[in-house]
Prior knowledge:
By secondary structure, the chain is an all-alpha fold. The chain contains two helices and no strands.
Amino acid sequence: xxxxxxxxxxxxxxxxxxxxxxxxxxxxxxxxxxxxxxxxxxxxxxxxxxxxxxxxxxxxxx
Length: 62
């Protein structure tokens, strides 16, 4: 893979941070949810955010 420019690297870091924030918030909402279906929705969304963050981080490791 080609080297990332400074702008691309900055955008990538921003996206990773946004997904981490989303994960943290959704995970908190999940722990606070009473309704099992809502809890499941928040848990799935949190996991999706974490997975996306991890995929984006692979660009930093290449």
